[in-house]
Every structure is written in C-alpha cells, then in structure tokens.
Amino acid sequence: MPAVGIATSGSKKAYPGNLTLYVTVTCMVAATGGLIFGYDIGISGGVTSMDSFLEKFFPSVFRKKHRKETTNQYCQYDSEALTLFTSSLYLAALLSSLVASTVTRRFGRKLSMLFGGMLFCSGAIVNAAAKNVLMLILGRLLLGFGLGFANQSVPLYLSEMAPYKYRGALNIGFQLSITVGILIANVLNFFFAKIKGGWGWRLSLGGAMVPSLIITVGALVLPDTPNSMIERGHHDEARHQLKIIRGIDDIDEEFNDLVTASVASNQVENSWTNLLNQKYRPHLTMAILIPFFQQLTGINVILFYAPVLFSTIGFGSEAALMSAVITGCVFVSTTFVSIYGVDKWGRRLLFLEGGIQMMICQIVVAAAIGAKFGVDGDPGLLPRWYAIVVVLFICIYVAGFAWSWGPLGWLVPSEIFPLEIRSAAQSVNVSVNMFFTFMIAQVFLVMLCHLKFGLFLFFAFFVLLMSIFVAVFLPETKGIPIEEMNEVWKTHWYWKRFVHDNHLDDGERVEMVKGGGF
C-alpha cells in the first residue's frame, strides 16, 4: 500500500512548451476576476463599522455601539438585518454559479466572466445610490450573481490556459487578486471613513465598479481556452490557439489528449447526473469538502468583519480599520509564498503547514480574548501590548491561510476534474463555497454573541479535522497535466477502488463507462 495520501506514480507525459509572455499576460488579466470577490469581502466589514452607515441603515446597531445599551462587547453588532446585508450576496452567488455551469460549458469561459463583471457593476451602482435597506439588499444580490459567474469560470480558465508545470503559480493569481482586492478595500475604507458629511460609505460601495469594469473589459479581449474551443467543436481554432499559448508548433500530443477528453465529454448527456457515477466519487468528495473546510478555517470571520471584530475587542473605529489594513497587507505579501512554492513543494505540504499554523494561532487568540473579556464581554481598559499581541497572532493566522487553504482551496478543485464533468463539478465547488460563506456570514455575529471567545476554538477544531483529511485522502497533484489527472486517483491507496481504467492506449478514444452509482 502506498504512503497515505500520496500518489506514488502517475502520468509520465511531459508536454513540450514554454511559459510564454502571451499566456502570462492572459492569465494575469483573467486572474483580475478575483478583485471583485476580494473587494467585496474587504468593503463589507469596513462600511459596517462606519457610524454614518450604521446610523442610516442599522440604527439599532448604532445605538448599541454608542449609547451603551449593552456592556457586552461580544453582542454589540448582533443584528439580523446587518448579517443579511453581508450574507445575501453569497446566497445569490450560490444560485448563479449553478446557471454559470451551463453558460461556461456551452458558450465558453470568457462569456461567464463577462456576465460576472457586468452584473457586479450593476450591483455596485445600486449600492452606491442606496436610499434604504431594500436597495442595499438588491445591490448585494446583483453583486452575488456576478460573483457566482466569475468564481465559476476564472479558476477553470486559469487551469486550462496555464502550462501544467506552472499551473499552480498562475492559478494562484486568482487568490492574489482576491487579497489585493481586500487590501484596496481596507485602505479605501480607512480614508473614506474620514470624509466629512458621512457619505464616504457610498464611495466604498460604489468603488466596486472599478474591479468589475476591469474583468468586463478583460473578458472582451481575452481568448478562450483550447479546451473550451474543442469542447464546442472549434478544433482548428483550438489548435492555432494552443500553438500560440505554448510558444511552439509541436503541440500534437497535448492537442490529441484534449480532443480525446472532449470525445469523452461529448458522450455525457448530463454532466450533473454523471457526477454521481462511482468513478467520480473522489472528484465529488473534493468538490464538496475542500470548499466546506476552506470556509470553516474561520478566515471569513477575520475578512468580513475585521474592523467589527477589532472594534469589538476594544479598538476604536479608526484603529479597527487600520488593523484591517495591516491584515490585508499580510494577506497580499504572504500569498507570494504560495505562488513561489506551490509547484516546487507541492499542494499537500502547504495545506498541512498552513493548517497547523492557523490552529495554533486560533487557540492563542481564543485564550487572549478569553483572559481579558471572560464570558461577560466587559474587558475594562485594554493595554496597548494586548492589542499588539492579538493583531500579531491574527496576522500569523492570515499568513498561514494565505499560502495554504486560501489559494489551494480554489486551485486543487479546478485542476482535478476531467473535462466531461468540469463545469458541473466546478459549480458544485463554488456553490458549496458560497453556501458556507453565506452561513458563516449569517451566523457569525450571533455565534460571537453566544460562543464568545470559544468561537475561535470552534474553528480551530475544524482546522484540525481538515488537516487530517488532507493528510489521509488528498493526493499530490503538482506536475500532472490537467487531462492526465485521472492517474493520481488510480494510485491512491483509498480512491483507486472507485476509479476504473477508462482510458485506452494513446491515440485511441476514450470509452465511457455507463454504469456505476454513487
């Protein structure tokens, strides 16, 4: 039996090709689709800590915060309307990602990116002009529809466009864009909160038009992927495009493998029901559990509500926004560790190291908050050293996420699915991600109010659980061509019992197995 979780053998294919300037620029432009996700994550927590925003839309929260209706700091932001403002976007993203699967498969990846950018821009305009909570929620829903399309298509686009040797680094450009979006949003919140007259929140929310226009224009000028062209029957264009992005003429082997995968894909009448076939059990398991675990790292507690969280643990409003800027800087800078190491050290090592680092930090933060706030949430005067310690360990936690579960939670699912189920499986991945993002956003403030500092221990438990899952069940996928990924499951100690050898010798077509149940 091979070592637990590690594929000891796999595809021996090594497609020729170079990391061309063309494909690098193309992937960089496509990766900007992550900006809209990151900007929204960063902006949401910032505006909900602005007094002018709270007073206009959530006066009960404003009164709790300033008139001391409660001395319990854990519960000052507990508001169903406030959590609905944050979480409604992710429910919309869940629904739109299911529709995006059909658009992505039938019409190409770039059209989904275009729809994503246009819908997100519409939502930004509505939010910036909001007069009441209903307009805010409508804007959030439009933002969510755009986000679902973008998150469904961009990771697939990057994984299909990149040479397999550099797939990890180029795909993580999506996560890097998310972190840059978060940082930009935090910086803008910090300065817009200082605007006299209390209308800075409109600039924060309306600023989402900028990243949405970037991905919209990018989608208009980007080429589609050879995989998508072949899937839609455009073989000549796909061959020409593959020569351009690889920088060589000798692309026959890779092209033939893409055609073979397309043949298998075209034999599938319904990719959704096909997902339930036994041979796709490892793929479906990863499509569900990786985004599930990614959200239960607790990262969105930090990212959604960083200013709110820092304000809750005793920082002033301005100090809370600045602390969020600091964590945003850490997020961006440490993502480069993953870009550098993912194709050198592998996915598993980063997953496991990041998990251990996050778990330790969550335990320390829980102990620090528990020691000062206890269970009644009244800490009294907080010393400066205490604030520094809390921010320091939150930054170390963010760093661990930034080079592990953050980028790899998007990379690994996007690279393991065979073409015949790729769009549907990616929609499952995005839908699960958005569902649990919605749930975390919806219940976090209530959980903080009731679990208090124990909330961080709650997430630490799940980080331990997900690290064990990776160690036992996730094979290494670095250096494997995307259309040859089936090999890693065949050699895995557990998953090989489900994955049959459906691929025939090179040059022959793939015969799909009709039977099998989940």
Please identify the oligomeric state: single chain
| Inertia-based shape | globular
- Total number of distinct structural domains: 1
Cα-based radius of gyration, to the nearest Å = 23 Å
Report the sheet with the most strands, covering strand number, pairing sense and barrel closure: none
Q: Distance between the terminal alpha carbons, to the nearest Å? A: 24 Å
List the helices and strands in order. HHHHHHHHHHHHHHHHHHHHHHH
For the record, the CATH architecture stands as Up-down Bundle
SS-derived structural category: mainly alpha
List keywords for this structure.
518 residues; mainly alpha; 23 helices; 72% helix; disordered N terminus; symporter activity; Sugar/inositol_transpt
Architecture overview:
This is Sugar carrier protein C-like. Keywords: Membrane, Sugar transport, Symport, Transmembrane, Transmembrane helix, Transport. Belongs to the major facilitator superfamily. Sugar transporter (TC 2.A.1.1) family. GO terms for molecular function: monosaccharide transmembrane transporter activity; symporter activity. Pfam families: Sugar_tr (PF00083). The chain is an all-alpha fold. It has one domain (about 20-225, about 270-490): Growth Hormone, Chain: A, CATH 1.20.1250. It is built from 23 helices and no strands. It has helices at about 20-30, 35-45, 50-55, 60-65, 80-105, 110-130, 135-160, 165-190, 200-205, 210-220, 225-230, 235-245, 250-265, 270-275, 280-295, 300-310, 315-345, 345-375, 385-400, 405-415, 420-450, 455-475, 485-490. Helix 5 (about 80-105) runs parallel beside helix 7 and helix 8 (about 165-190) runs antiparallel to helix 9. Mean pLDDT is about 80; it is low at about 1-10 and about 500-518.
